[in-house]
Amino acid sequence: MSLNTSLSIAVQSLNAASGALQATNNNIANANTPGYTREVPILQEVAPTTEGNVSLGNGVQIEGYQSIRDGLVQTRIQEETTAQSSANAQLSSMQQIQPTFTTSTQDIGTDMSALFTSISNLSTNPSSTSSQQAVLTAGQNLAAAFNTASNTLSSQQAGLNTQVTQDVSQINQLTTQIAALNPQIAGMTANGQDGGTLQDQQNELVLKLSALTSVSVTQGKTGVTLSTGNGTPLVVGSQSYALQTTTGTDGMTHVLDENGADITKTITSGDLGGTIQTRDTTIPGLLTQLDTLANQFGTAINAAQAKGYDQKGNAGQNFFNVSTTVAGSAASISMAISDPTLIASSSDGTAGSNGNLANLSAVQTTALASGKTPANAYANLVYQVGSLTSAANAESTATTSSLVQLNDQLNSVSGVSIDQESANLITYQQAYEAAARVVSTIQQLFSITMSMGTAAAA
Amino acid sequence: MRVTSMLADIQYQMQQSQQALATATQQVSTSLRVNQLSDDPAASANMVLSLGVSANVDTYTSNISSVTPQMQTADSAMASIVTSLNTAITLGTSGANGTNSAANTQAIASQVQGLLTSIVAKGNTSFQGVYLFGGTENGTPPFVAASTTYTSSVGTAANSLSVGTTASIHGNGTLLTPGSVTTITDAGGTGTFTYTAQAGDTIKNLTDAITQAASAGTVLPSTVSATLDGSGQLVVADSANNLTMSSNDSVLGGMTATNAKTATSTSGSLVEGTTAFVAGNGTAMTAGSITTIGDASTGGTMTFQAKAGDTLANLNAAIGAAVTAGTLSAGTTATINAAGQLSIGTNSATDGIAVNTDDAALGSMSAASSTAVANAYAYVGNSTVNSVQVGESMSVPTNLPGNQLLISGANVIGSLNELITALQSGSATQIGAATTAVSTALNYVSQQRVPLDNTISQLNAENTSLSSETITLKTQQTALVGITLADAATNLSQAELDNSAVLAAAAKIAPQTLLDYLK
User: Fold this and answer.
1) In chain A, count of helices (H) and strands (E)?
2) What span, in angstroms and rounded, lies between the C-alpha atoms of A444 and A437?
3) How many other C-beta atoms lie within 10 A of the C-beta of residue B504?
4) Could you give the maximum distance between any two Cα atoms of chain A, in Å?
5) Is B262 exposed, middle or buried (0-12, 13-18, 19+ CB in 10 A)?
6) How far is the alpha carbon of B340 from chain A, nearest alpha carbon, in Å?
7) pLDDT digits over A103-122, tens only?
8) SS3 state at A98
């Protein structure tokens, strides 16, 4: 119950207030730092002392600083980020593929129609050179349209292939950095402290990693343990496990784990997963449909040519050069004839007969080997491309919107409110002023006590 | 919920309203609701199909406008023919009234000849280089004045028999007597080998047949061979077994057994010098070429299309078959004349033919001078009809073969010919009968016009229907992917309003914090 005790309590208050001010200062400074979780000073009442029947408090002390986190929301944000990146990777590719299949000018559908139009026009005057030339030109345009569509898909695939290598190298960089932080954070949490700023940094890195691939995160004594969605370890304690890339037998870049096992098919989300999905499943699917259409269409036209005679009375030759295998048909399809008189319009060998043009025209309305007419097969392809793009777009929009909400939630727990910190500034400032006032009061009391029984006191 | 900063939300909302604004702007400038496939995949797919139908409708419309003038030209030619026939009937009627002098009927005959010429000219009407009444053989005039003989301009058929050229001369070309029978019985084979010579068979056919039987190995064993020896005798021998051979073909002169295993023909000059028929006309014809022979008397037309490996012998065979079938007059043959030219002709001064060919090996065929047959015309087109599609399930025939118009049916040309002959003869009865025949022909031609006129009206009707279908399709396409300007403009104003509101709200809220108020 002495003045000294009061003084030390007051000094402790000053410390507590200035410590709290420091936390507030830090919060304000980091208000816009990504991943920063606000710190709250932990003010604890010091254990009271008992003198006889009287229990006296012993002031306040700062136990430490608490970062206000919400692990569950954090995890949700990671998951949603993974989904968003995957959707964005697919969307970006599909948006580049989509324009090749427009329904306006110079796409495969328009060029197929133009070919049939030119064939029908030729039927009104089969020996007209200009009409014959128009058929050849239309065939040339169609072949070129197939080539272009195929090239667009292939070059997308090549671009995605490069992306895989880049993503893997980024993943490796991040896992190295994450693993480096683990021992330091583990040390702090072992002492019962929160990981503080280091934990914030590590969380940011894990979030960046989630954008690349889905990670499952477990907190443990040695820090955070990360593995990919299917269990391949990435970070354990201070150890990071690098992924490797190699070119597979299909010419594509494959992802291997540290032991060399091929884990490409197991990566299904994140930018890497979306890229792999588009490269290995979506685009090959579209290419197969395109190749099948080119192959079956070209073959059907050639078969119709063979049924008739050209202007010189000889049996019709191939109109298109079509690859024998379906794969690569769209890329390689080209005109096999350049002489207008080789169009097999005749059904009786005379130059004036248009009888075989009906067979060529019939390709438009006859089902190909796939069971669809050429127009239906193409319309189907257009629908596929459109709906893949639209689905990726919807997923991207949904995940973005979801992330906005989740971030709002996280911010409501961990975010710095300038207004609140400003109010805190006032609070702690007042607390400091009050404590300082106590100190000066005690000092005055000291002076009075010291001068007790002296003339000055009177 | 504790709200820390509204900036993130504000940014998100600004992004959203900017996106909506961009979309609305694009819709206004393109008048399309669907600007990329992802905007509406199902509509885009349906557009592909609808555009395909539109393209077809446009094509049908264009076909109709190509074909209609062609048909109208054909129709007016037929109208002209009807007019000429009417005049012919009038002339014939006046010629048959028994009051004319010989000079008069001759004069009338000349007039009718003139009508015949102009009718044939109408039959040769062309439209943009295409002869309308030639069937699909329509690159040259289908009705040609008939002559008894036609010769090719190219005269190398004989030269092709000399060394180094590409004629296929069958060796052992001696012709066998058609119907003759040659038999071989061989101890090493089963049964009897019999060969009956067909018309046109040569020694080579016989030796080929023997060699084939030997390699088959059943009727004759494989040890049998047939050759011509140095003296030109046919020798058939079996190296292992006994055989006997006999023939009643005088060309071989019968077969004698040289020994138990060999038979030799009695005649010994089967190769060169004697009646060797070079299965000749061995000149190769150009594969794919077409040679047409029209016969003015029968009214028929024979078309021969050469395949790879065909020679003039094949053409000759086709002519023979046509004669048998009655398409060409009896006695029509193709031969090589002294100058090496292919000569096709009848053996009757009144049977006229016309020949047309596109085979470069023959050059062009033209009538031999002074072989024309008066008032006779042969048809060198064909009977094939082209049809053109002018609607989803509507095709129209676009030509009428000239032989159908002027030869078969009531034989316009033939009946006019009869009338001319009758007028020249002066017999009133004959003239009367001929005139009646011409009358029948006129009715026939008028009837032929009917389907053509019907088709022309059908085309007009179809044209109208296609115009309205075009409109329907355009409406459908706009409904699929388009947006009216009114809707698009409304959307745009709304989007602009929304955007302004978001920006204004952001401007108001964003900068304010407690610090502004703490002094």
Assistant:
1) 11, 12
2) 11
3) 10
4) 146
5) middle
6) 26
7) 667 899 999 999 999 999 99
8) helix
Could you give the CA distance from residue A453 to residue A299 in angstroms, rounded to a whole number? Answer: 123
Q: What is the pLDDT of residues A436-458, one digit of tens each?
A: 999 999 889 889 888 887 766 55
Q: With contact defined as beta carbons under 8 Å apart, do B402 and B379 qualify?
A: yes
- Are the C-beta atoms of residues A371 and B327 closer than 8 Å to each other? no
| Cα dist from A453 to A442, A446, A457, A458, whole Å | 19, 13, 7, 8
Verify whether the Cβ–Cβ distance B8 to A408 is below 8 Å: yes
Residue carrying structure tokens 């040695």: A222
Amino acid of residue A159? G
pTM for this entry: 0.81
Find the residue in B nearest to A373 (Cα): B49
Q: Give the orientation angle of helix B428-481 with respect to helix B412-425, to 10 degrees.
A: 160
Length of chain A: 458
Could you tell me if the ipTM is greater than 0.95?
A: no
Residue of B nearest to A353 (CA): B136
Give A376's Cβ-side CA count (13 Å radius): 11
- Please tell me the predicted confidence (pLDDT) of residue A104: 66
Map tokens 């050429």 to a residue.
A374
Residue B305 φ/ψ, nearest 5 degrees: -105, 120
Find out whether A190 and A220 touch, Cβ atoms under 8 Å: no
Q: Which of B23, B34, B471, B477 is nearest to A101 (CA)?
A: B34
Beta-ladder partners of A8: none
> What rounded mean pLDDT belongs to chain B?
86
Burial class (CB in 10 A: 0-12, 13-18, 19+), A251: exposed
User: What are the chain B neighbours of A103 within 8 Å (beta carbons)?
Assistant: 37, 44, 47-48, 51, 481
C-alpha distance from B2 to closest chain A C-alpha (Å): 5
Residue B224 CA from chain centroid, whole number: 48
**DSSP class per residue in A398-419:** HHHHHHHHHHHHHHHHH---HH
Residue B50 buriedness (CB in 10 A; 0-12 / 13-18 / 19+): buried
